[in-house]
Automatic annotation (TrEMBL):
<feature type="transmembrane region" description="Helical">
    <location>
        <begin position="186"/>
        <end position="205"/>
    </location>
</feature>
<dbReference type="InterPro" id="IPR050482">
    <property type="entry name" value="Sensor_HK_TwoCompSys"/>
</dbReference>
<keyword id="KW-0418">Kinase</keyword>
<dbReference type="Pfam" id="PF02518">
    <property type="entry name" value="HATPase_c"/>
</dbReference>
<dbReference type="InterPro" id="IPR003594">
    <property type="entry name" value="HATPase_dom"/>
</dbReference>
<keyword id="KW-0732">Signal</keyword>
<feature type="transmembrane region" description="Helical">
    <location>
        <begin position="301"/>
        <end position="319"/>
    </location>
</feature>
<keyword id="KW-0812">Transmembrane</keyword>
<feature type="transmembrane region" description="Helical">
    <location>
        <begin position="363"/>
        <end position="381"/>
    </location>
</feature>
<feature type="transmembrane region" description="Helical">
    <location>
        <begin position="212"/>
        <end position="230"/>
    </location>
</feature>
<dbReference type="InterPro" id="IPR008979">
    <property type="entry name" value="Galactose-bd-like_sf"/>
</dbReference>
<feature type="transmembrane region" description="Helical">
    <location>
        <begin position="331"/>
        <end position="351"/>
    </location>
</feature>
<feature type="region of interest" description="Disordered">
    <location>
        <begin position="563"/>
        <end position="582"/>
    </location>
</feature>
<feature type="transmembrane region" description="Helical">
    <location>
        <begin position="275"/>
        <end position="295"/>
    </location>
</feature>
<keyword id="KW-0808">Transferase</keyword>
<feature type="domain" description="Histidine kinase">
    <location>
        <begin position="528"/>
        <end position="615"/>
    </location>
</feature>
<keyword id="KW-0472">Membrane</keyword>
Length: 615
């Protein structure tokens, strides 16, 4: 992977050197042309049509007049002289820079005039100007060149060097200047626009890939800023101030989105930093739209911090890339390193630390960013394909697991179907008991109650009623729906036993807590009711109690049942207390998966307790 990285970076550098070499071979021989650097300059007002008679000062080209006249907005005339030995052959004239709009006079004859020499100014500085001079404009001996330059002091107005000489030599220099000043910038603009649209469509199709959305926004805003270097007018804006204000805002917006893009590329989220940068960008855009005459002249207040932000973001990215073993990060860092180093030269020229020139080296190194992004996309695509392959393997594994689970589910469903069949048979049996045995039992009770009273008939009726109640308990528990809660199942038991205890002279107090939505299932519900029924039967038959308290409480997945009486009590450890009733209670507790407790003292009543889980 490292070898591939070196190859990619080396190819990018070779392409850059080849482009520069082609331009170097295009340089014309020095003897074929002459460069004029000595001139005179004089300020004038916007409407001046002729040069001033006085006020001329000697200057060296390239000249920025804002250093000499820092508050001067308007026109400065530049005057140059050269000696022409032969006026019979045409010569070429090249102005490499005139900021912002100009008109050119040679020996009193108008050679060229910009479309707009007053606000909104044309923008001559974006392209060199080439003229072919011949008789009668060209004179033998002394010739005078006058250049009327219109500009604003806030935007480095002035005039660059002038070249004269053989037309072929000047034409070659003109083509070279066009490459650096127009073609490179136009290529950068077109490439940024195409990349922006491409990545925007990619992001629209995959919204989760926010890194490509931010890169699309960065390149589109960068294309808007790059248009500044090829546009020859301020349209659609109304003034130079508005143009420069919007240009500075676009530069800040591009840098801000570039920072967010780098953070997303590193899979980092610095929300506060992003919020501050986006807020500053919004303020800059609003000022550019509504306060252009303030922001335009003070553009460096925004541009210089933006440049510092740009360098800081790239340096931080370089450091993060060195510490992170990811090939895409390191390739991107390598591809950003060269443009950053080259852009330092352009920055020093902009700040007038280095000699002035119009060769924007940063624009020609921008394709390296494309190389980095291309590799990053390929790397991420490869990683995505590996994830897809891994996903297919994982999917096959999940399918196998799902098949096993489906088999288990079908087996459980088969078991449930058998259980439902048994339940259905049980319900049919219960219905038969209810309709057959139950009806016969009720008929026998009714017949005995209508017969002459006798002790034998009374005992028989009582026994038959106990059988009837027990049958009801079985029928109620079996035939109730599965979603009936415990409170609903215990209500019939409470009703029947309250009447029975009251008839025996025993006061009963029932308390149910948390039984709503508590379900034990049919079999366990029947066991619980059998437990309570057996406990109450013992109270009724053996305790001699006058009061009985029954509590059933559900909390935190545990069920607590308690039957307390104030009867004669008993000794739980004695042999006589180990009868069938207590054994039945212990058996019911065991089937419920719970614990059975007895608290009894002779002469002080008894407490029977059951604690069991609800599931």
């Amino acid at each position: 992977m490292r070898a591939r990285l070196r190859v990619v970076v080396l190819l990018g550098l070779l392409a850059l050197l080849a482009a520069c070499a082609r331009q170097h071979r295009a340089d014309p021989p020095p003897a074929a042309m002459q460069t004029l650097k000595d001139a005179e300059a004089a300020p004038s007002d916007w409407n001046a049509t002729t040069p001033p008679a006085s006020g001329w000062v000697p200057v060296k080209l390239m000249d920025y007049w804002n250093k000499r006249w820092p508050q001067h907005d308007g026109v400065v005339w530049y005057r140059l002289h050269w000696n022409q030995t032969d006026a019979n052959a045409p010569i070429g004239l090249l102005l490499d820079y005139a900021c912002m709009a100009d008109e050119v006079w040679v020996n009193g004859s108008l050679v060229y005039r910009e479309p707009s020499l007053v606000e909104p100014l044309s923008r001559s500085w974006v392209a060199p100007q080439y003229f072919l001079l011949d008789r009668p404009v060209l004179h033998a001996g002394d010739n005078t060149l006058l250049v009327r330059v219109s500009g604003l002091a806030a935007y480095q107005p002035g005039l660059g060097t002038v070249n004269i000489g053989h037309p072929e030599a000047i034409q070659a220099r003109y083509q070279q200047a066009m490459f650096w000043q127009i073609h490179v910038h136009f290529l950068n603009f077109a490439m940024s626009a195409v990349l922006g649209v491409l990545f925007l469509m990619f992001w629209l199709l995959r919204r989760r890939e926010t890194v490509f959305g931010w890169y699309a926004l960065t390149t589109l805003l960068g294309a808007g800023y790059a248009w500044n270097f090829v546009a020859s007018s301020t349209w659609p804006l109304a003034s130079t101030d508005a143009w420069e204000a919007v240009n500075a805002a676009l530069f800040l917006a591009s840098a801000t989105t570039f920072c967010v893009f780098l953070l997303r590329f590193c899979e980092l989220r610095w929300r506060r930093t992003e919020a501050v940068l986006l807020l500053a960008t919004a303020v800059a855009l609003l000022m550019a739209l509504f306060m252009p005459h303030v922001m335009g002249p003070w553009r460096n207040v925004w541009i210089l911090p933006t440049v510092a932000l740009y360098y800081a973001a790239i340096l931080a990215f370089q450091w993060h890339a060195l510490r992170t073993p990811r090939a895409d990060l390191r390739v991107m860092a390598a591809c950003l390193a060269v443009p950053v180093l080259v852009s330092l030269i352009d920055l020093l020229v902009y700040l007038e630390v280095l000699p002035s020139g119009n060769n924007d080296l940063g624009a020609i190194t921008s394709p390296l960013t494309l190389i980095g992004m291309g590799f990053a996309i390929a790397w991420r695509f490869s990683a995505a394909m590996r994830r897809v392959e891994g996903f297919n393997i994982e999917l096959q594994r999940e399918v196998d697991v799902a098949t096993l689970r489906l088999s288990d589910t079908l087996s459980r469903e088969h078991t449930l179907a058998l259980a439902n069949t048994r339940i259905g048979e049980r319900l049919n049996l219960v219905r038969d008991l209810h309709d057959g045995f139950g009806g016969s039992l009720l008929g026998a009770i009714a017949t005995l109650e209508q017969s002459p009273p006798s002790p034998e008939a009374t005992r028989t009726v009582a026994t038959l009623k106990e059988l009837r109640d027990d049958l009801r308990l079985v029928i109620d528990t079996t035939t109730h729906e599965q979603d009936t809660d415990l409170a609903g199942l215990l209500a019939p038991l409470r009703h029947r036993w309250s009447q029975r205890l009251e008839a025996a002279g025993i006061d009963s107090f029932w308390r149910f807590d948390g039984l709503d939505d508590c379900r034990l299932g049919a079999a366990r519900s029947l066991d619980l009711q059998r437990f309570l029924q057996e406990a109450l039967t013992n109270v009724l038959k053996h305790s001699g109690a006058r009061r009985v308290d029954l509590l059933v409480r559900h909390a935190h997945g545990q069920l607590h049942a308690e039957v307390r009486d104030d009867g004669r009590g008993f000794d739980p450890s004695s042999h006589g207390s180990q009868g069938a009733g207590l054994a039945s209670l212990r058996s019911r507790a065991s089937r419920l998966g719970g614990l059975f407790h007895i608290q009894a003292v002779p002469g002080a009543g008894a407490v029977l307790q059951l604690d069991c889980p609800t599931s």
